[in-house]
Amino acid sequence: GIDEIPRLLVLNKTDKIPAMEARKLAERYRGILVSALDRKTLVPLIETVERMAFPSPAVYSVTPSINQELI
């Protein structure tokens, strides 16, 4: 049923509120914080979507690891 469909809450425009308030909202609603003004906030979103779409360990990863540089 519908309860079996994975869902992800993305809290956008988090730059508009204090950081502590944003973190509390993310914890409370189990969401991902995103701000277009800070591209680094997209990394947790991409990683979470990747884990949800490919639950088993993937051979290839869309996001580079922290120690890996983009070519």
Q: What would you say this structure looks like, in words?
A:
This protein has helices at 19-29, 42-53, and strands at residues 9-11, 31-33. The radius of gyration is 14 Å and the shape is globular. With 71 residues, it is an alpha+beta fold. 6% of the residues are buried. The longest helix has 12 residues, at 42-53. The chain has a two-stranded parallel sheet with strand order 1-2. Residues 67-71 have low confidence and may be disordered.
Break the fold down into its secondary structure elements and pairings:
Layout: E1 9-11, H1 19-29, E2 31-33, H2 42-53
Parallel strand pairs: 1-2
Gap between N and C termini, in Å? Answer: 42 Å
Binned strand content: 5-15%
Spatial arrangement of strands, main beta sheet: 1-2
Gyration radius, to the nearest Å? 14 Å
- Percent helix, as a range, is 25-40%
Let me know the average pLDDT. 85
H and E order: EHEH
Please give the count of helices. Answer: 2
What's the main sheet like? 2 strands, parallel
How many strands? 2
**What is the molecular shape?**
globular
- Quickly give the structural class: alpha+beta
Unreliable residue runs: 67-71
Briefly characterize the structure.
The protein is of the alpha+beta class. The protein has helices at residues 19-29, 42-53; strands at 9-11, 31-33.
